[in-house]
Structure prediction request, 945 residues.
Amino acid sequence: MSAPYQPRVPRRFVGSYRPRIDAVEKAHGSAPYADDEIAERNYPGLLHARVLRCPYPRARIKHLDTTKAEALPGVRCLLTYRDPEVARLKPTNAGWTDAVDTVSYDNMMWRKFRDRRVLGDYATWAGDEVGIAIAADTEQIAEQALRMVEVEWEQLPFLLDPISAMQPGAPVIHPEVAEHNVLPPDPIGGPDVFLNRGDVEQGFAGADVVIEMDTSHHNPTQGSLDPWCCVAKWDDDRLTVFSNSYSADQTRMHISQMLDLPIHKVRVISKYVGGQFGRCDTGDQPFFLFTALLARKSGRPVKFKHTRRDSFHDTRQGALYHCKVGAKTDGAITALHFKSIGDIGAHADHSVFALKFAPAEIAEVALAPIPNVKMESYAVYTNRIPSCMMRGVGNSQFNFIFGRMIDGLAERLDMDPIELAIKNFGHEWGSCPDQSLTAVLETGAERIGWADKRHKPGQGPLYEGAKRRGVGFSVHPGWHAEWQEERRGQVQAKVTLYPDGTVTLDAPTVETGTGSNTCNVLGCAEALAFLGARPEDITWVSTVDTDNGMRDCVQTDSAVSFLQSEVLAVVAEQLKQKLVDIAAPVLGVPADQLSIQNGQFVAPGHSVSVKDLLWQGDLVPVSVMVSRRPSTQRTGVPYIASFAEVEVDTETGRTQVLKIVIINDCGTVMYASGAEAQQVGGQVMALGEALTEELIYDPVRGVPLNFNLIDYKMPTILDMPLVEPVLLEVWRGAGEYGACGIGEGTLTCTPRAVANAIHNAIGVRVDELPLTPEKVLRALGKI
Amino acid sequence: MRINGEDREFEVGRDLLPTTTLSAFLRERLGCTGLKISCDEGACGACTIIMDGKAVLSCMLLAVEADGHDLLTIEGLPADDPVIEAFAEQCEPGHGTALQCGYCTPGFVMTARALLDENPTPTLDEVKEALSGNLCRCGCYAGIAMAVGHAAEKIAERGGRA
Prediction:
C-alpha cells in the first residue's frame, strides 16, 4: 500500500486527506442530478422528446410521412427537417470550443469543419440524429410515434475504416468539408505536416540505429452512467435550459447563437453530473436546439434524455500511428518522425485537437531536447461513431506509440528504457536530466520492483506451466499546467463573509465528480487562514446558473482543482483589505496600521475580533469577486508514469494485470483523497481501454453491435488488480500553488505500460488495442 | 406492497401500467430518485434496491411483480446507516474516496447493505463478488471495498446491528 504523500510545504487544509464535501449527500442518494429533477412534479405539463436515429451507416431521407405518428394519442408536437425553424439553422460543429473558453459561432475552434445539420436529411453513421423529433406525453409514446413515421431512405455506400476512405474513388462523406474524406489544413491544427523541427532526414543519416514501428488505437467510449439530458422551458420569449451538461456559459452561447436569441434571454442551469470524461465536449450538442424548438412549438416544457444506446455518441478517436526513430548507440535520439491517420468517424468536431494540437504540445515540452522532429497527421472521415474528446484526448493515442518507441529503441540498444527516457526527454525550460521525469520513473521502478522483475523479453520463469510474467512502464508529460490554460480567459470566484465568520463560496463549476468542489473549499479555507476559517465554515454553491452573471470554469483540462484556488488567493488579499478599510474608521485607527491575524484586527493598542467588529452596525455581508486570467509564466510541465506487472497465459492468450503503480507529479497536491481517487479510478478506464472495451461493428451492414453495457465491457470490481497511487511534488508551476491537473493524465500511460509488460512477459509485441487474447495468441504464432 | 416500512396500495391502470418497470415506478410515481436508471437492462446495478432482504435490480422487474413484497430503497435507510456513513467517510490514504460523481453510489450502498445483512463479516473476496454487478465508471472500487470493510466494523461496534 502507498504511504501518504509528503507535502513539500506544510499547509492547513490544501493537500489534506479528508472526505469530499458532497460525500454525505451522495452516499445518501439525495444529491440532485438533472434526471432526478426534470420530472412532472417540478415541470407541470412536461413532454418527452425522442429523435429519429438513422438505422444505416450512410443514408438520405427521400421522404417522410408523419400522418400515422401525428394521429397517435399523446403525441403533442413534431419537428422535421422541412420546418422553416429547423431548415434555417446554420450548419455547425460540436467542437465549438473545448469549453475552456466561451466562443461565438464565428469564432468556433473548428470553423472549417461545420459538417453537422440539426435534424438534417442526411445521416453519416448508424445512430446519427436525423429528420424528425417528436414530443409526447411519455417517452414510450414518443418512441412509438417514431416507429410509426414512414421513412423512405436512400441508402448510400459507406466506409468503416480510414484507409479505405483515403483511396481514390471512395465515396465522399462530407463533400462540403473534405473533398477526399481527409480534413483539409485549418488555422489551429495547421497543415498535414504540422511540425517540422530541424532536419529529420539528416538526423536519421547521422544515427547509428534507425527503427520503425506501428501502433493502432481503438475507440473506447466515455461511458458516463448518467445519461445526458435536458429540459427546455419558455417563459414568453425567455428560454431556460436545465441539464447535466458540464458547462453553462458556453452552452448558453451555443443556444443563443444557433437560435438567434439575445444572450440574456437564455438561462442555463447545471447541477450534478454523473460522470463527464469528455462526453459533453462534443458529440450530441444539437439536442439542446431541437428540444428548445419543440418546447416553443408545443408551449410546454420538454425533456430530452439519451437512452443507454444514445449514450454511445462519442468516443476516443481511433488512430494509426507510425514512428521512425534514429539514435546513437549511447541512446541519444537524433530524429523522430511521427505520422498518424485518425479515424474521426462521421463528424469532424474536435478531431484535429487529438491528432495535431495535443502532439504539438508534447513536442514543445517532452520532446524539446530532440533536435529533429517531424509530425504529420491525416484526419479521415468514416461512417462510424464520431470520435474525438475523451479523457486524455490525443495524449492517450500518442503515448501508445511514444512508450512503444522508448521500449523498442531501448531493446534494440540493449539499454534500460528508464535510462533511455531520462537521457532524452525533458522540457525546454529545464535542464536534462529533468527532475520530475527522473522522480516519476525512479519512484515507479522502486514500487513495481523493476530491478528484480524486469528480465529479457520472454526470458522470465514459467508459472503454472504456461504463464509468464513481465513488467513494463510508460511515461508522458503532463499537460495541465497553469500556463497551458491561457486560452481559458477569465476564471471567477466570489466570497461572501458573514458576521459569524461563515462564508458562501461561489466558484462556479459544474460538479462532475472530479473533486474540484472540495479543492475549492480547501483553497478558500487556506486563503482565509487570516480569519481562522475552517472548511466547515464554508458553503460551496453547487448550482451553476448563468443568471448570476458569473462564468463557470468548465471541467476540462483537469485544471479546475487549482485554477479557482489561485483566484481565491487573490480574493483573500482583497477581502483582507476591504475588512481593514471597514474597520479602520470604526476603531479609529489608520488603515495602514491595521492588520488581521487569526481572526483578530491587530493595531497598536487594539485587538478586537473580526466577528465582534462585524456584528457592529450594518457592515455585512462583505463580498469580493475576482476575475483573473491564468498566469502565462512558462514553467514547463511535470511528468506522469504508469508501471504495470502482468501475467500472460500463453495457452489462452489472456492477460491478467497483477499490479499497477500510477505516479503523478502534481506540483502541489490540492486534495490528496481526491487526487488518489482520480489515480485509482483512472486505472479502471485505462484497463478497460487496454484490455476489454471495444466497439464492434458489423462490417457487412455497417452498424454497431454492442452499444450497451452488457456487451461493451467496462471493468468491474472483480476485474481490477492492486493499484498503488503515488503523488509527488517535484516540479513547480507559477502562482500560490504551482499545481498541475492530473485527472486525465492518470490513464494516459497505462495501456502502453501493459503492452510493454506483455512484451516483457512473452517476448513478442501486441501493438493494437485492445490487447485481447486473440491478438496475444496471434502474436505468439498460435493461431 | 410495503415500501420503506409503509404499506401502500396501487392500482394497475390508475397508478401504473402492466408494463411499468419497478425502477421507473419508484422514481417517477413515488419520487425515490436515489436509485438511478442508467443502463435499464440489468448491466450496471445503479437501480439496486432491496426486496425481501435481497439486493435486486429494479429495472429488471415490473412494478406489478413487486405486488405483496417488502421493498427498501436508499430513502428508507436511517441517517446513521453504517454503510452510508462508511461510504461518505472513506479517505484512507492509498485507496481514494468511495465515490466521485456519486451516480452509482446508491446502487453500491444497497448492494453492500444487503451483503452485510446476510454476512456481517465478509472477506475481501466476498465483498468483490457481491459488488461485481455494480459498475462505477469513476473507478472507486478500491475505496468502495475499504468502505464496506469499515461498514462491517461499524456494525460490529454497534453490537451487530446493521
Chain B touches chain A through 60 residues (CB under 8 Å). The mean pLDDT of chain B is 97. The domain at 2-76 of chain B is CATH 3.10.20.30 (Ubiquitin-like (UB roll)).
